[in-house]
Q: What sequence folds into this?
């Protein structure tokens, strides 16, 4: 798999390492399911052949992700407060919460996923 390594410096740095970011790009075989992975100092971004995008980070306090698929949405997540905010310039015409964790017993080892489904005009 091709691997590209970059050192990126922004602005006029007085110290050689002051504004430096290291970026690693890895390209995969589409048959394996993973297409692309980017690693940098604040996290890792993966893109799979089915179009799913996953961002991993333990160092960032908050993350903003913008998506464009006929509609535009922005997802913001704050690590400290646990708040998730979804914004869109499109009108939201329906909203359905799917809260499954409240109905499960605390001793259950089964992973429970909560979700919010909404439709954009």
A:
């Amino acid at each position: 798999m091709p691997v590209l390594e970059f050192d990126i410096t922004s602005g006029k740095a007085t110290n050689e390492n002051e504004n430096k970011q290291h970026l690693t790009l890895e390209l995969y075989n589409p048959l394996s399911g993973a297409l692309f992975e980017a690693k940098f100092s604040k996290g890792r971004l993966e893109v799979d052949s089915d179009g799913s995008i996953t961002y991993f980070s333990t160092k960032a306090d908050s993350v903003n992700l913008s998506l464009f698929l006929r509609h535009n949405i922005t997802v913001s997540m704050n690590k400290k407060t646990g708040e998730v905010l979804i914004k869109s310039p499109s009108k939201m015409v329906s909203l359905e919460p799917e809260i499954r964790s409240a109905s499960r017993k605390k001793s259950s080892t089964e992973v429970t996923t909560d979700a919010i489904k909404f439709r954009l005009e």
Q: What stands out?
A: Strands lie at 3-9, 20-27, 34-40, 43-48, 53-56, 62-69, 71-78, 84-87, 92-98, 115-120. Residues 1-59 form one domain. Residues 31 and 92 are 36 Å apart (CA to CA).
